[in-house]
Amino acid sequence: MTITITAFAQSPDRGRGLARDTPVRWALEEAGLAYDVRLETFAQLKQPPHLAVHPFGQIPTYEEDGLALFESGAIVLHIAQKHGGGLLPDDPQARARAIAWMFAAVATVQAPIVEREGAVLTERDQPYHAQRMPMLDGRVTSRLTQLSDSLGDKAWLDGAFSAADILMVNVLRRLGTSGLLNAYPSLQAYIDRGEARPAFQRAYAAQKAVFENLPKG
Ligand code: GTB
User: Fold this and answer.
1) What is the pLDDT of residues 34-43, one digit of tens each?
2) DSSP 3-state of 5
3) Neighbour tally for 3: CB within 10 Å
């Protein structure tokens, strides 16, 4: 069994581990699975060979034994369900709750973060930008307040570390330079705990090596 994932040949995040191959790499590392990486350029993502695996022409994808998957959340769930690695609880109710948190990460929490990020990246020159930002910041901080209240003084979202924490930490990492996490020390500590895991460190180093090994010039 060989697992192959796809990642950017040249990630716009310059090796900061913000693209969505990072949670997939992290889950594979937590599960102790070896994997190959096929690096794709932006142009290649829109060509038929990649579109056959990913209908939206994006990274990451996951291929294993004739199975081809897209969507980072679904890939992390598959790794957790098929390969274990302690990424989902055995107890059925705890497992269901962990999966609910996985959906919360990629939908409820990620959505306002991505919307805000898009505005920062693409709407800075628009006359409405300054007026719109407080609303977008407010949508993010509202979710952060709720998440912080729910996390309380727990180490992880619901009991032991799980695939849900992989997805949630990755979503929160995207706020890195926004300053919005400053008011949420417990969420910053949660991110720090995730990033301190050896599996995260290996995943981060692997994606960073792609950027560092780019031809210079
Ligand atoms: N819902 C999908 C999933 O979770 O797998 C979303 C996948 C996705 O957005 N993929 C992006 C992609 O392939 C890369 S991760 N984009 C190319 C395209 O659409 O043509 C998003 C991303 C990109 C860059 C940064 N960055 O520079 O910081 C962060 C995140």
Assistant:
1) 999 999 999 9
2) strand
3) 19
Query: What pLDDT digit, counting tens, does each position of 180-216 carry?
Result: 999 999 999 999 999 999 999 999 999 999 999 987 7
Q: Residue 187: CA atoms inside 13 Å, Cβ hemisphere, count? A: 25
The structure tokens 């055995």 sit at 90
172 CB within 6 A, ligand 1: no
CA-CA distance, 104 to 84, in Å (whole number)? 21
Task: Determine the residue of 16, 20, 56, 76 to mutate for testing ligand 1's pocket, defined as the one with the most ligand atoms within 8 A of the Cβ atom.
Answer: 20
Comparing CA positions, the residue from 148, 122, 153, 131 lying closest to residue 12 is 122
| Dihedral in degrees, nearest 10, Cα atoms 127, 130, 134, 136 | 50
> What local confidence, expressed as pLDDT, does residue 109 receive?
98
Task: Assess contact for 89 and 98: CB atoms under 8 A.
Answer: yes
User: Is there a contact between 5 and 24 (Cβ–Cβ < 8 Å)?
Assistant: yes
- Per the CB < 8 A criterion, the answer to whether 156 and 162 are in contact is yes
Instruction: Give CA–CA dist 47/29, Å, rounded.
Output: 29
User: Does the C-beta of 18 come closer than 6 Å to ligand 1?
Assistant: yes
